[in-house]
Amino acid sequence: MPQKRWKSALITTAVLAAPILIFVEYRKAADFQERSDCAAYWLEKAKALQETNMKSESKMAEQSQLDLREQLNSAYDCVTKPASHSRIAPGGGSFGQHGVLPHQ
């Protein structure tokens, strides 16, 4: 009988642990997707600003340089800042766990 209890306990543990492990892996994948979407958003904005500045024949304005730097820093923050573990960013932003919001 002790062998049967051991097998039953092992099966029960596996059945209970599987959903937890699946959920953890799902959150890791969702976190990666949110981080990459956030970074892509900021990099696209920076690319568009850079293209606009390249088209103009005058030197890049100081404000444009600051905006470009801010956008690149925001993309970097999306990738490197730890998640806040909330589904909504501070201020009701749209980037899930990462509190890097578009600057107005």
Describe how the helices and strands are arranged.
Blueprint: H1 2-55, H2 62-80
Helix pairs in contact: 1-2
What's this model, at a glance?
The chain is mainly α and 104 residues long.
Structure characterization notes:
It contains two helices and no strands. The chain is mainly alpha-helical and 104 residues long. It has one domain (2-80). Helix 1 (2-55) runs antiparallel to helix 2 (62-80). The longest helix is centred in the first third of the chain and has 54 residues, at 2-55. The radius of gyration is 23 Å and the shape is rod-shaped. The model is unreliable at 86-99 (pLDDT under 50).
Give short descriptive properties of this protein.
mainly alpha, about 0% strand, rod-shaped, about 100 residues, single chain, 2 helices
